[in-house]
Structures are given as C-alpha cells and as structure tokens.
Amino acid sequence: MKEFIKGIFITGCAGFIGFHFSKRLLDEGFHVVGVDNINDYYDTNLKEDRLNILKKYTNFKFIHGSIEEKELLDNLFEQFQPESVVHLAAQAGVRYSLENPQAYIQSNLVGFANILECSQKHQVHHLLYASSSSVYGNNSKVPFSVQDRVDHPVSLYAATKKANELMAHTYSHLYNLPTTGLRFFTVYGPWGRPDMAYFSFIRAISNGEPIEVYNYGKMRRDFTYIDDVVECIMRLWKKGPSLDHSLPYKIYNIGHNQPVQLSDFIDVIEKNIGKKAVKKLLPMQPGDVLETFADIDDLEQEINYKPMVSIEEGISKFVKWYKEYYTT
Hints:
InterPro entries: Epimerase_deHydtase, NAD(P)-bd_dom_sf. The chain is an alpha/beta fold. It has a domain at about 10-185 and about 225-255: NAD(P)-binding Rossmann-like Domain (Rossmann fold, 3-Layer(aba) Sandwich), CATH 3.40.50. It contains eleven helices and 13 strands. It has helices spanning about 15-25, 45-55, 70-80, 95-100, 100-120, 155-175, 195-205, 225-240, 260-275, 295-305, 310-325; strands spanning about 10, 30-35, 60-65, 85, 125-130, 180-185, 185-190, 210-215, 220, 225, 250-255, 260, 280. The strands form four sheets. It has a seven-stranded parallel sheet, with helices on both faces. α2 (about 45-55) links the parallel β2 (about 30-35) and β3 (about 60-65). The longest helix is centred in the middle third of the chain and has 21 residues, at about 100-120. The chain is globular and about 55 Å long. Residues about 1-5 have low confidence and may be disordered.
C-alpha cells in the first residue's frame, strides 16, 4: 500500500457529509486520512456503521481523535503532510446549542482555530470548511446571497459558523492561506443525522407516533440532497482555491435554490411511507428561522453545476435506505 502522504485530510469523516464525501474520494482512488471523535450527540452505531464502510478501502486511514486536541492535530499534519483539508467536523444542531453551548465553543471555535493554525503552519494548499445557512438568521431578503450582511445570528450554532468565516478570512489575510467556506442548506439523504427533522418524522410516522411540527408547518427550507452536496464539494475541491481576489478566500452557498414549505415536505414523506402523520402543531422554537433560500449563482458560475435532485426523488431514496438499514 502507498504511504498516506500528500493526500486529503478530512475531519468528521464518520459524520453524515464527511462519510459521503470521503467515500466519493475513495471511490475515485484518492488517499484519504480521516479523523473523527465519534461523539454521542446522536447514535454512535450509525457513525460506526458509516466508518466500517470506509475502513474497507485500502486507501483510507482512520484516526480516532478530536480536533480540540491541538497536539494530536499537529502530529497528524506533521505525519501525513496533507495537501488539502476538508473540515467537516463540528458540533451540529441549532436546538442543542441552547442546552449545551460549551460543546459549540470547544468544537466549532477551539477546534476550528486548531485546524486553521495547523493548516497555515504546514502550508496546506487549500482548506475547505463547513459553514451553514444558519448564518443568515432571519434575513428577510431572499434568496440569501453570500454578498448579504449576516450580522444577526439567532442561535449560538449560527454565531460559531459566522465566527468560522471571520477566522478563515483572517488566516487568508495574514498567512495567504487559501480557504473556501461552504454554507450548507438543510442537507438530507441516506445515512443522514437522526436529529434532523426529516429523519425523526419518518421514524415517528413509521411507528405511528405523533410528530412535532413547529410554526404550524409554515416554515420553508431549501432542502439539499446529499449527492448534490458531495458533487459541489468535489468540484470545488478539484477546482482549487479562488485566486481571483486580493485574498485567497471565498464562500459559497450549497443549496437547492428551491425552498419547500414544511407542510408540503411532510406530505411527500407521507406518500413515500404510505401512512398519514399525526401532527402536533406548535409555535416557532427559539433559534429557528422562518425560511432558507440559497442564491447559487456564484456556485453555478464557478463549477458549472447546480443541485438537481428533487424532494420527491430524495425522500424516496432516503425512505428506501431507512427501511433497509433498520430492518436488516
């Protein structure tokens, strides 16, 4: 086996997006070094099962560890000398940030600072990192553009993601470190996160249990299928950093550009499961936003691609995976 030198370093490789992107790279023959701490924010069995798929590849090397551990990261960067880093590890979830803010400070701020410091110290050619549509808060102008001001986050999670973008900008400025931020818009699909609404809806409806529908189903989300997300990351990674500005710094919206009302989304789930939902209609939750809607003109122009998987197709694929995974 070849040495894992001059390869791709991926954080959060056992997470939802990290797993799918790692698998895509491995399928294309790239050497991947993945790190993940397998925390218990949600079912660790799901993370382990994702990881077991990746471990079957001879061009994959897994490191169990946390990005908050600066010494560990320093040693890994020294050992593997990655040419590029795709940073997808984070403490996710808007609502959980109300319960456990410290987890977000440690993972999303301390951990990201460690990634930036190691990347500049070891002269990484390109750092791509996960941001979030949450940074737009309750901006009323739609679709959301990366040119819009994002100064009013409505959750700590959103605030940490905005902070990540500012931190990346600083390192691009001070050290000429090429960075690319990815504002993901409600990513869903097979092997997804159980804390996401669509996952919990499908589980509850399948079991005949009621679902909690916030803002009475009148929220709108720009649901983006995982395969589309991976294709966008892949094209941006292969393209390399943006060097057409004074700084090697860029941010992109990664969204479907077609928001769907929550009540309509639930209708699609019901059709795929073949059961009606028992809905518990509730008011808006703290930290939630009314709508997300991605302007992806910059993304299309840069990579000649736009997400194309419809909600109907995406939910159908997820339900198929869900039934296979939880019945075998």
